[in-house]
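Crash report, auto-generated. Payload:
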Amino acid sequence: MSSIIFRTSAHIVTVLMLVFSVYLLLRGHNNPGGGFIAGLIAVIAFALLMLAETPDYVRERLIYPPPAFAGSGVLIALFAGLLPLFFGQPFLSGLWLGKIGSPLLFDVGVYLAVIGSVLMILLNVEEELS
Amino acid sequence: MHNPTLKLWLAFCALLPLGIFLLISASYKPPESLLYWPWIPSLGIDFSLRLDGLSVLFASLISGVGFLVQLYAIAYMKPYKGRGAFHLYLTLFMLAMLGLVLADNLLLLFVFWELTTLTSYLLIGFNHEQEKSRKNALQAMLVTGSGGLAMLAGLIILGEMAGTYSLSAIITQGASLSQHPWFTPSLLLILLGAFTKSAQFPFHFWLPGAMAAPTPVSAYLHSSTMVKAGVYLLARLLPVYGDSTLWFTLLCSAGAFTALWCALQAYRQTDLKLMLAFSTNVILGQLVMLIGIGSSYAITAALLLIAAHSFYKAGLFMVVGNIDKATGTREYHELAGLRAVLAISFTAALVTAASKAGLPPSFGFLSKEYLYKAGLEFGWLLSGTMLLANAIMVALALLIVIKPFLRPHHAKAAPMKAVEHNQLLWLPPIVLALLSIIVPLALLNWYQGLVIDPAAEVMLSTPQVKTVKLWEGLNLPLLLSALTLLLGILLYVGYPRLKPRLDQLMSGLPSGPAVYQYLLDAVVKLANWQTRLLQHGQLTQYSLQFFLVLLAFLSTVLWQIHPLPPIDWDLKYYDIFLAVFLVIAAVVVVKARTLLLAVAALGTIGFLTTLVFLVYSAPDVAKTQLLVETLLVVFIAIVLRHLSAANTVPRHSAVRRLVHACVAAGIGISITLALWIITAEPMNQAISEFYAQTSVSGGKGRNIVNVILVDFRAFDTLGEAVVVVIAALATIAILAGKRINQMVSEPPKEPR
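Recovered output after restart:
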């Protein structure tokens, strides 16, 4: 898998897919999309990059280790759930400020949790096998 | 103590109980005060606290003795590592214990009950580098924890019987519950909890085992507070169960037998701390027996004994701790002449031991008088048993004072060093010793008005409170006290001859820890057996078992439905197209000879399923399916890249293939039938219509699937996100475990 065409195009496609995944995340509430799907697309993008390069290459570009993404994702989702408690509403109620609301924050948490977890598995399996 | 943060923390830990003590004294207005805070109202669980005569006795003992123990621990724990954590555990335990005695809700009481079990586990196992500490901490937790679970069942039955979980409401109902068919089960289950916690026979063995804890813990948990939680619960529930004969029989027999049996055990010990531990069992037995009797004399005796015992036993434990500090041993025959270095501790020991022996005018004497009065109302058997147990207490009190302190120091005795320059080591036991004298001499009226009268009012249905007096003239109980002392002295004098006899007699009997260990091993064996049976670690076997169970469930339901409903064969061309291709792909998966072909065919099935979702207009599901399939391809690609040798599908035996084919066919047919039957029913549109209508107004989004995920059912999504993370962590753990296994099975070769 070290063909130069694959490697070059993988870099470009990865970037496009990451942009697309953010787009899906943001439009999810009104159109097909959402945190889970967007997270999976981001993971596939990183997988492509990993196949073209090496796991270490991906790890370096992630800056933070995948478990940090997973953990912060869960914490962000939890925080979005706890936020309404301060406004006298039940756990996980939606809070809205115009078009932006706590459900979006919750979805960002799901997005990060999916990316972190699946990447964790992917990178470790690849490293274990090679 | 050079660390200022630690210093501040220790000061806080010591002053907190004092503050609570003062708060309780200030806010206590007989007969009771209530504090109410709804917690889970739908389940009848409220955070409600109640301060009445009974709880004020326990609460002030917990906070008062807690203050002294914290002070003592500051000095005692100085050489230990992790002192900050030790004080934290001790404080947490104290708060849990306070919650237990103040809770006015049965389930709240249970929560605090279990919290004391947990915190005491941390405290007993504090010296966790020693195996014995860990083992005994676990033993205490398992014994009291399993009793606690039984008690939870009993408390729930009690709450359901009474129709409320509020303790004060249950107590006002009193004995009216006794006609209920569940009365006896609830009584037995609650007794199981109380007996394990208060170390009654046959659960008594965990308490001496808990002596693995540092001495401040023994002085606090295992004499004055935690072990009395069971006694507290029994006293609390006396108005409900007190009139039942079963209650009387069980409590009196268990209590009296525990007292006698553990007195004999205490007589055999050579370690001073163990001696004190077994004699705590004795007092607990006497308390349980007194509550079982439940007369006004018995209740008065119990209320006196609880405080008297807390003072003298905590004091004696501290003295033994000082002996340990000064010499490094607690074996009494190695100790002598300690009066020289432990002069103040000796004074404390003298007074507290006098209270233990029941010498007038100590607090112990007073409680013993009332113990005999209560016992005499029920004949000679109970009084005789108590007489023997108390006589042994006298002998032990003599031994604790005479052997280590009054014998002249000789060459064989352990070397000793002065430790009393640290005033926190001797101040708390001296205070406790003073209390053992001052309360009966000067504060008796005060104690009566503040504790005995209000407590008797909650515990007895017809309170005829006895006015407690130290001196009531010559009577039978006084005579029994004199007899106890005489017998005790005889037992002390005859100790060298009697102890070997007793050892000989009791050595053949099965011991509590041995039975416990046997049961524990049996549980581990059972767990091993079923793990080997079910968790064999073979993926094909797992999926086979899973599908067999599914098949069993499906077929039992499906057999009962006949005839099959008529089916609507309204097929579009793309339905047929999808079905044909799915079947072809499935056949290819099974018949494929190479791994790559099988994987490709499996992927085809996945993508065709995506098409099915699209056809039936579920774009979000289709998208997810598509992405998961893609990801699967990525994973398989990774695996295949590294598994060149295994590129052909292995051939299995004909029998195995036949079994698998049968299961697969069974599942296929069952699912088809299930879908056939389910889709024939008219669909209930209510739920989808609800979401369609409220998605924009309630969730502010037009994508119903996403609104459900992040708003309507966000709690599920949160759980799923956590599950995904856990699955990822488990994968990493498995991979790491594999690496470790390889390292273990293939040790690195020695270089030649």
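Post-recovery validation: The helical segments of chain A are 4-27, 35-52, 55-62, 66-82, 102-129.
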